[in-house]
Amino acid sequence: MAKKGSPFEEYDMLEQIGNGSFGSVHRAQHKIDNRIVAVKIMKRKFNSISECVSLREFKVLKQLSAHPNIVQLYDSYLSPNKEFYFVMEYINGGNMYQLIKCRRDAETEFARWEIRSIVYQILSGLAHVHKLGIFHRDMKPENILIDNTPSQDGQHSKNIVTVKIADFGLAREMKSRPPYTEYVSTRWYRAPEVLLRSNAYSFPVDLWAVGAMFAELITLRPLFPGQSEIDQVFRICELLGSPNPSEWREGVKLAAKIGFQFPKISPKPLISVLPNATPSMLDLLEHLMYYDPKLRLSAEAAMSHPFF
């Protein structure tokens, strides 16, 4: 339950570290124990505690019990001036987009064990989210935060970094009924069923996005950097080929419904765009990026793939 009051009574605001359509994020320090946290200030004004607790992001964060690969909510406040604040775990290492850009600028590829560690942790966090009946809907490198903090004994763990899934502003619960109509996910990581305006998608949209991020960790380049929704579909078809009714009947129906005709393109081998990938990498990617969402691996099943 949100508290009445302001986090400024307990925390000193240090600096703004992010700004989005829903709110701004600030680094802050607890006045007594010096703990560093992130404070998110929602842009929208709230009139009551009950209005705060009905906010989707807040409801989702409250349901997500502690997990090492999910950013944790510590506290929340509704101030007298109607501002709603989340006090959250502070992650010190930026995000996966910045990590990939840093490697690309340095022309230094990730080692296979680094990719294995990062992707496994993303799947682990996602499996936890899905088990609770929630799907994220905005999985992208900017929403995968990087924690460089050493363990308590001063040593880094076997992982290069700890990664944590963040920003549940677009998340939905499975018990909330379709249609799901509003904008979902950054275009480059958007699943084909969402691009074709399905309003009854589910957990597999998150796994498609994991596949796209997995490929990006291998090549340091986005897999499908579409310039528009139509261009996005064309880029997917250029690699995976055009779906036919026998492999994705629902997709062909969705395309017809919005007046879209798939180009007649044959699939390319994945290795043609991922020349450094191992056979087990390519196999996992293939199983995350089937056109038919029913055929994609679940997060939990993907964690048992031979690549890991």
Annotation keywords:
single chain; 308 residues; alpha+beta; Phosphorylase Kinase, domain 1; Transferase(Phosphotransferase), domain 1; 2 domains; six-stranded mixed sheet; 10 strands; 16% strand; protein serine/threonine kinase activity; nucleus
Explain this structure to me?
There is one protein chain. The chain has 2 domains: 87 residues, 2-Layer Sandwich (Phosphorylase Kinase, domain 1); 207 residues, Transferase(Phosphotransferase) domain 1 (Transferase(Phosphotransferase), domain 1, Orthogonal Bundle). Helices cover 33% and strands 16% of the residues. The chain contains 10 helices and 10 strands. The strands form 3 sheets. The protein has a 6-stranded mixed sheet, covered by helices on one side. It has a two-stranded antiparallel sheet with strand order 7-10. A two-stranded antiparallel sheet has the order 8-9. About 2% of the residues have low confidence.
